[in-house]
Task: inverse folding
C-alpha cells in the first residue's frame, strides 16, 4: 500500500498504483493463459495439417489409380457405355435409381471384364491407404448429378449408371479442372455425413474428359483424430482457469473488494441517517482508503459530494415546485382545449336526421388534433377534423387559432373551398414557426344528404353507404394548410343516403404501433369498422378505440388519436 495520498503522487506513481495496473499484474499471475493460447493455435495448425494430409493422400491415390487403369484397361470405352446408358433414360426412369429394377436393367455392365478389373485395381489401392472409398464416376453438369461407373467398396458398392445429386458448384469445379494443383470439394451426405472428395480426370485420346477417378475421405476420421487432443486440452484449460481465477480473486479481495465494501457500507449508513433525519456529514470523510488508485479518488469524490448534497437538495426542492407549477398549467391548458371541442353527446338531441360522435385522445397532456361540428343553420351541419404538425403546447395554440378562423368563416355560410383557402392564407401570412395543419372539412345539407367537402392533405375519409361496407374514399387531396400562400383547393360532393355513415380520423389511428413496431394500418381499421356496421356513431368510435387499444397493448402512445363518425338518417316519416 502506498504511503502517499493520490493527490501527492507523481504521474508515474499514479500509473503504477492505478486499478488498471493492478488488474494487469493480477492477470500476469495466470501465466498458464498464454500457454493455453499457444495450445489453441497449435490445435488449429494440427487440424489444418491433418486435413491437408488426408486431401493430398486422396488426390495422389486417385491420380495413381487413373494412371493404372489408363494403361491396363480401355476406360474410355467402358465410361462411354455407362454414360450412353445414363443419357438414354427418361426423367421418370432416372428417378428410380437404386431400385432393384433399375439395377437389373444394367446388370450386364457389372459382368464385364474391364469393370471387374477396374474394381480390383481400385480395391487393392484402397486397402493400402487411409482413404474411405475409391471409385470411377462422371459429373453431369446439366442435372447436377454424379453418375457412378465402378466402386471399390466390396460390401455395398455403387453400381454402374447409379447416380446421386451433387452441388452444381462441385460438378463445375471438377469439370473445369485444368490439371494444376489439387481439386477437392466438401459435401454433406445423408449416408456418411461430411465427406471430402478429391480426384483427377480420365481423358480420351482426343483430350476430352470421359470420367473421373474420385476418392472420398470421411471427416469423421479427422474428428476422431482430434477428439482425444480436445478432451485433454479441455481438462487442462478448466484446471488452469480455476487456478488463475482463485489467485486473481485473492488479489482482488485485498486491493479492490475491501475498499469497495467500505465505500458501500458508508453509503448504506449515509442513507439510513438521511431517512432518520440525522445531520451527520462525515460518512465518507472518515474512510481510510489509501489505495493510490481510482478507489481512493472515488472515496474523496464521495466525501465532497456528501458536503454539497444539502445544497443540491435545496435546489431540487425548488425545481420540484416549479415542475408542479408547470404541470398545473398544462392541466389547465388541457381543460381549456377540451372545452373548445364539442364533448356533450348527443349534441343535437332534437335532430333525428343525423347522429354524430367524436373523441380525441392526445399523446401528451395537450394535443395538436382537433375536431368540430355545429349547425350553421337548420339545414346545414359544419364538420371538421384536423391534425397540426407537432405536439404539445405549440400545436395546441396553433390548433385553437385554426379552429376559431374556420368556425368564423363557416358561420358566414362560405363554401368548404373558401373556408380552407382563407385559413391557409391566414396561416401563411404569419407563420414564423413554419407549422402546418392537415384538414378535412365538410358541410352536410341535412335535408338532401348532399355533402360538400375539401381535403387539405388529411387522411382519406371512410364511407359506408346504406347496406354496404365501410370503404376508403380516395377524395381529391390538396396541399396542407400553411404550406403555400394563395393555394387553391378542390371541392367535391358526396351523396349520403339514409343509413350511410362517414368516418374521419387523424393519422394517429392507422400509425398506432404495437411492441414490435408494427402499425395498426388502414386494413385493421376497416376490419374494426365493418364489425360495427349496424352500430350507432358512438358504437363505431368505441369499436375502433377498443381495437387500437387491443392492438398496441402497453405500448406508449406516440401521436394524438382523433376520430369522428356521422350517421345520416334522413327525414323522419
Result:
Amino acid at each position: 500500500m502506498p504511503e502517499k495520498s493520490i493527490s501527492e503522487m507523481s504521474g508515474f506513481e499514479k500509473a503504477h498504483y492505478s486499478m488498471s495496473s493492478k488488474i494487469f499484474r493480477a492477470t500476469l499471475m495466470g501465466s498458464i493463459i498464454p500457454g493455453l493460447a499457444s495450445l489453441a493455435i497449435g490445435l488449429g495448425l494440427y487440424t489444418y495439417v491433418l486435413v491437408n494430409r488426408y486431401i493430398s493422400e486422396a488426390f495422389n491415390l486417385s491420380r495413381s489409380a487413373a494412371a493404372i487403369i489408363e494403361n491396363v484397361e480401355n476406360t474410355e470405352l467402358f465410361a462411354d457405355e455407362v454414360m450412353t446408358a445414363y443419357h438414354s433414360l427418361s426423367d421418370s426412369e432416372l428417378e428410380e435409381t437404386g431400385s432393384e429394377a433399375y439395377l437389373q436393367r444394367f446388370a450386364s455392365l457389372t459382368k464385364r471384364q474391364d469393370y471387374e478389373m477396374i474394381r480390383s485395381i481400385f480395391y487393392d489401392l484402397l486397402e493400402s491407404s487411409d482413404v474411405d472409398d475409391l471409385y470411377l464416376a462422371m459429373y453431369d453438369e446439366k442435372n447436377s448429378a454424379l453418375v457412378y461407373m465402378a466402386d471399390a467398396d466390396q460390401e455395398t458398392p455403387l453400381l454402374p449408371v447409379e447416380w446421386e445429386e451433387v452441388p452444381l458448384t462441385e460438378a463445375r469445379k471438377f469439370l473445369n479442372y485444368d490439371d494444376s494443383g489439387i481439386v477437392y470439394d466438401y459435401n454433406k451426405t445423408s449416408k456418411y455425413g461430411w465427406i471430402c472428395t478429391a480426384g483427377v480426370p480420365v481423358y480420351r485420346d482426343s483430350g476430352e474428359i470421359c470420367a473421373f477417378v474420385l476418392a472420398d475421405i470421411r471427416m469423421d476420421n479427422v474428428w476422431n483424430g482430434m477428439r482425444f487432443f480436445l478432451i485433454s486440452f479441455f481438462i487442462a484449460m478448466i484446471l488452469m482457469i480455476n487456478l488463475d481465477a482463485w489467485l486473481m480473486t485473492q488479489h482482488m479481495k485485498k486491493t479492490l473488494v475491501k475498499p469497495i465494501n467500505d465505500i458501500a457500507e458508508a453509503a448504506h449508513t449515509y442513507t439510513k441517517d438521511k431517512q432518520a433525519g440525522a445531520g451527520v456529514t462525515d460518512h465518507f470523510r472518515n474512510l481510510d482508503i489509501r489505495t493510490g488508485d481510482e478507489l481512493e479518488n472515488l472515496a474523496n469524490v464521495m466525501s465532497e459530494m456528501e458536503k454539497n448534497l444539502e445544497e443540491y437538495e435545496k435546489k431540487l426542492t425548488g425545481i420540484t415546485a416549479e415542475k408542479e407549477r408547470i404541470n398545473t398549467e398544462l392541466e389547465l391548458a388541457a381543460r381549456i382545449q377540451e372545452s373548445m371541442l364539442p364533448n356533450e353527446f348527443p349534441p343535437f338531441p332534437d335532430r333525428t336526421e343525423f347522429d354524430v360522435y367524436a373523441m380525441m385522445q392526445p399523446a401528451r397532456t395537450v394535443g395538436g388534433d382537433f375536431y368540430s361540428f355545429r349547425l350553421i343553420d337548420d339545414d346545414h351541419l359544419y364538420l371538421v377534423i384536423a391534425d397540426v404538425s407537432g405536439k404539445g403546447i405549440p400545436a395546441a395554440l396553433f390548433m385553437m387559432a385554426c379552429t376559431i378562423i374556420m368556425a368564423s368563416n363557416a358561420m358566414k355560410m362560405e363554401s368548404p373551398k373558401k373556408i380552407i383557402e382563407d385559413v391557409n392564407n391566414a396561416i401563411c401570412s404569419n407563420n414564423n414557426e413554419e407549422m402546418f395543419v392537415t384538414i378535412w372539412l365538410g358541410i352536410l345539407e341535412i335535408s338532401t344528404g348532399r355533402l360538400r367537402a375539401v381535403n387539405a392533405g388529411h387522411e382519406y375519409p371512410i364511407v359506408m353507404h346504406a347496406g354496404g361496407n365501410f370503404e376508403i374514399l380516395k377524395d381529391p387531396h390538396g396541399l396542407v394548410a400553411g404550406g403555400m400562400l394563395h393555394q387553391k383547393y378542390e371541392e367535391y360532393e358526396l351523396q349520403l343516403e339514409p343509413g350511410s355513415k362517414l368516418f374521419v380520423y387523424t393519422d394517429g389511428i392507422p400509425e398506432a404501433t404495437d411492441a414490435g413496431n408494427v402499425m395498426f394500418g388502414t386494413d385493421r381499421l376497416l376490419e374494426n369498422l365493418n364489425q360495427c356496421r349496424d352500430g350507432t356513431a358512438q358504437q363505431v368510435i368505441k369499436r375502433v378505440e377498443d381495437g387500437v387499444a387491443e392492438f398496441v397493448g402497453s405500448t406508449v402512445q406516440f401521436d394524438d388519436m382523433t376520430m369522428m363518425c356521422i350517421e345520416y338518417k334522413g327525414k323522419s316519416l
